Amino acid sequence: MGKMVLVTGGARSGKSRYAEEIAMQAGGNVVFVATSVSTDEEMEYRIKMHKMNRPQYWETVEGYKDFDILLEECIGCKDAVLVDCITMMVSNIMFEKCKDLEHISVSEADEIEEYVKSEISKLLKTAKSSDVKFIIVTNEVGMGVVPQTDSGRVFRDIAGRANQMIANTADEVYLCVSGIPVKIK
Q: What's the pLDDT tens digit per position in 81-90?
């Protein structure tokens, strides 16, 4: 069985860079799962910069759900799978499942959370049944102020619980702070 590593931290904490280092140490034959969706010019620029900063020979797969299907053909011959990032996955699912996030209802929030849990379960099952190293990146969302909006609080809660699911299953967990990774599990 492959080892699963979770790398978490705040925005610009160095978590993606550290996750890439772990993937390289696994052997360099990596599939990078990009969960971002280009929604505007600024996001397109961010995606472009991320692509330029990682090795050109890594295989890139784009998607934020159905990881079992997305990865079934490509993980057998890889050294590592790097998923970046879970919080972007949660955002994308929220936008997909709720047409009016400013007026999200409790039942909609519950449905979204159940869907996210299902997708995280698929990812964890795929990782645990694989012989390759899985590195999963996520943002630590619980250290800031309580969001003012309903959708912000729903996002924080769902992402936080998704992170807990992954951390509970992961073999190792690292918290990145100011570019310094600290092993917490």
A: 999 999 999 9
| Catalytic pick among 3, 17, 50, 156 | 50
179: left (phi over 0), alpha (psi -120 to 50) or beta: left
**Contact criterion met (CB below 8 Å) for 140 and 10:** yes
Query: What whole-number distance in Å separates Cα of residue 69 and Cα of residue 124?
Result: 13
Residue 114 buriedness (CB in 10 A; 0-12 / 13-18 / 19+): exposed
Using a 10 angstrom Cβ sphere, with 0-12 exposed, 13-18 middle and 19 or more buried, the burial of residue 157 is: middle
3-state secondary structure of 36: coil
Please say if 103 is a catalytic residue.
no
Q: For the segment 112-134, what is each residue's pLDDT rounded down to a tens digit?
A: 999 999 999 999 999 998 889 99
CB 70 within 8 A of CB 83: no
Q: Which tokens belong to 94?
A: 């929220």
Question: How many angstroms separate the Cα of 36 from the Cα of each of 17, 45, 132?
Answer: 16, 12, 23
- pTM passes above 0.70: yes
